[in-house]
Every structure is written in structure tokens, then in C-alpha cells.
Amino acid sequence: MTQDNHNTDTTDDRSTDGTRSSWHRLSGVFEDSSRREFLRAGAAIGAGGLALGLGNTATAAKVEEICNSDYGTIDVADGFTLMDNRWGNQNAHQCIWYNDDGSYGYDFDASNTGGGINYPEVFIGTRPWGASTGVVEFPIQRHDVDEFVMEVDADLDISGGEWDWAEEWWLMEQPPTQQPETHQYEVMLLLDWGGGHDHGAVQDPSAWTDRFGNTIDLWTTYDSGGTDAYFYIFRIQGGHDGGKIDMAEIVEYLSSNEGVRGDLWLSGIELGNEYWAGAVGETTYNTFNVTINGSTYTSGTGDGGSPPTDTPTDTPTDTPGDGLVINDYDGDPSWSSNTNDLGQWCGAGSFANGSGTVSNGALVLEYDNGGWYQEQLNQSVTDYSTLVLRVSGASGGEESDITVEMGGVSAPLADVTSDSIATNMSDVAIDLQAAGVDRSSSSLSLRLNFWGGGSSTLQIEEIALV
């Protein structure tokens, strides 16, 4: 959340329930009106392009509504909570609501009010002060984030004053259920803005373009956002006008360019409209979906309230006894497709050679005290007892540099195998039962972390279960 440009008071106005107000120094000049009307972002693109208007919301009827409350909430889907967050301007009229078709949103009127900022929002996961929507993937340590995608389809109609459409999360020292208010960083991505909202010169223009075509700027940073947290504000160039957003790119940027530690906990996602005095508007969410490491949580008219689902998978043709190939890097499917031989998501990052390269039928990972690699299985593997990695190392003995995470177990590779990584291709086997791996999980994954020190190159020719 951002600061009222006309108020230099740096007092933290967070309420006792954990909702807070942030005051930042802005350099913007307000305009009487500047808005993108009825922005529909997300699924509409590619099927008729950018759709303007109210869509299905024209016939939707409200089944629940809360107005002008002390942070009242409505659970709008499994894992998603809508909040009547009026933390800065109690004189504004604000309502949150849920419709009979699964859509939801809020309206507000800050005309004829003084200063202060409000932030009606929907959130998934946790918040630093202890609130949680019960999603098991959040909070998650930053270095464990492999896949993180947000998709939103919303109608916005805002005028009369300064506003933005802002997604944010927090990076914390501890999960808030264990110790609240340990947040060190506040990370915001502006999807849209208007009414003179400004943060001055762009700090890092075109920092990256994600796989969905969104070009992201680092607009600015602040030493504090009203809490003690260091504050990053990113923005989508031109505003978000269609498609998904790869949030994992922000995580990677903060690690690679800002030195943000990998062991900090990422809270979840909050998405809402900050608005200032004079602004009047309404936002309807038709779709808001979040995918984290292979699990997708959905809300809105299409699936409104459906439970989280794992990434669809093709039924493997392998039978017990023949072995189950997870990935053999033979180009079918390609490593760049982020799909393994089980039809599940796979990926890597933070290596000296980026996300790794495939050469002569082997995945090459060059590490220097950093890097992660993950294969999603998303199925029970109780018919298999052993994980076999066919690998080689540039120096040999790389098992001491690698941490294995699978089925609730996290341990150095050297501790769960009696084999050593050689300089020629050879098998390194892990007895899953002896290692304590829960093989029955329907969301099972294999992860290798390279953050514990060491520098070398690992080649992986095949990962399989036998």
C-alpha cells in the first residue's frame, strides 16, 4: 500500500487485528480524472481480445455484502478471502460483496473526504500479522518457489481521484503462525493506475519480460512503507491488459539483483485497489487464480469456489517393476517447455547458466552456491521403492553440495544415499522408505537445492523410480 502524497506523517496506523496502513513518499501530481474503464485482464485475450464492459456481472445478484465494517471478510472461494480494508480513510463509503454467479468485488466512494488511503482487497495465503486463508502452500520460503502464476479477469471503473490496482506480498523471517510481524520486505506489483498516481522516474525500466509477454519495470524502492519493511514497487508497462503474470520472475529478480535471502518466507498474494480522497469506483473479479508449484487455486464465475487442483497429468504407461521415468531430457518433451515425462511441471533457476541447458541428452546445471531444480510428480508412487538419479559431476563428490527434498523429507543427498557422484555417468540411488519419504502424497515433488555452498557442474541424464 502506498502513501497519501499530501500527508508527511509516518505513523503506522495498522489496527490491532493486523491490518495496516503504509505511508510512503510519492512524487506524483494528482489529475482530475485518469482511468482505464472496465479493464478486463486475463482469459479474454485471444478469444475476442480485450473485452470491455460488465460481462456476466450485469445479471449477477449479490448474495452477501458487508459495508463500512472494521475489516469485515467474505470467503469467496477455497483459499480466497475478500476484505473490507478501510485502514486509511474511515470517512469513505466502502462495500465488499459476493455474487450468485461466483464473481465478487467491492465499490467505494471517497468523494468529499479528506486524506488517507483505503485498500479493499482479496487475498490468498497469509499476512504478516497472522491472518491465513488456509492454503497449505503459503507461506513458502522464497528459494522453494518454482512456479508462481497469477491470472486475473476483472472489471474496473474508477474516476475522480488517485488510485492504483496493486498486487503485493511480504517476505518474512518466520511464518506468521509461529511469530507474527517479522516482515522484512514488502513487494508490490502495480497492474494499473490512474488519477495522477506516480512514483517518479523509473528505477529499472524493462527489467524483464515474462513468458506471458508482460514487460515489468522496477518503478521505485522505499526504505520503509510505514512498517520497518523495505519496500519494492514494480509495475507492468502500460498496465495489465490481458493474460497471466509470472510472479516467480519477481522472486528471481529480487534474489539475483537485490540479494534478497532465499530462506525468507513469502506470505501469499493480496490484490486490490488503493484509492485516495476523491476517488469513486467499483471493481468486479470474474476470475482470480493463483498457481504455486503445480497446485492451482481458483475463484470467480468459472470455477467460483472450486477446491485447489493439481496440474492435469497423463496416466503413465509404465507399470510397477518396469520403472517410472520422471524425466530423461531426450527432447520429448523439451526442457524449455517446463514439462516432464509424466506430463507435469518441471523447472530450475538461480544457476550460473540460468535455468540449465540440455546437452547431448543430459540436463547441465552449473552452480556456485546457488540454484534449485524441481520435478513435479503429483501422484502416489507407493509401488516404487527407489529413486534413481543417473548423474555425473565435474569434480565428483557433488552429493555433499546438494539437498534433496521429497515427500516431507529434506536432507543432504550424501545422507540418503550410499552412492557417490562420479565424473562419469553413474546411478545414485535413494531408498525412499529408509529415507522416510511419504510416497503416498498426490502432490509429490522432487526438489534439489544447491544453496548450501560448493561450486561445480552437475549433469542429469535421467530421473526415475524403480
Descriptive notes:
The protein folds into two domains: 55-309, Jelly Rolls; 324-465, Jelly Rolls, CATH 2.60.120. It is mostly beta strands and 466 residues long. The chain contains three helices and 30 strands. The protein has helices at residues 248-258, 413-416, 432-435, and strands at 62-67, 73-77, 80-83, 93-99, 104-109, 121-125, 140-141, 148-159, 163-172, 183-194, 204-209, 215-222, 230-236, 245-246, 265-266, 268-275, 280-292, 295-297, 309-310, 324-327, 346-349, 357-359, 362-368, 372-376, 386-393, 403-406, 409-412, 426-431, 445-449, 455-465. Residues 1-17 have a biased composition (Basic and acidic residues).
Give the number of domains. Answer: 2
Question: What is the residue-averaged pLDDT?
Answer: 83
CATH superfamily (homologous) name of the largest domain: Glycoside hydrolase family 11/12, catalytic domain
Q: Summarize the main sheet.
A: 11 strands, mixed
Distance between the termini: 51 Å
Number of helical segments with 4 or more residues: 3
Chain oligomer state? single chain
| Class from helix and strand fractions | mainly beta
Low-confidence stretches: 1-57, 303-321
Which CATH-level-2 architecture of the largest domain? Sandwich
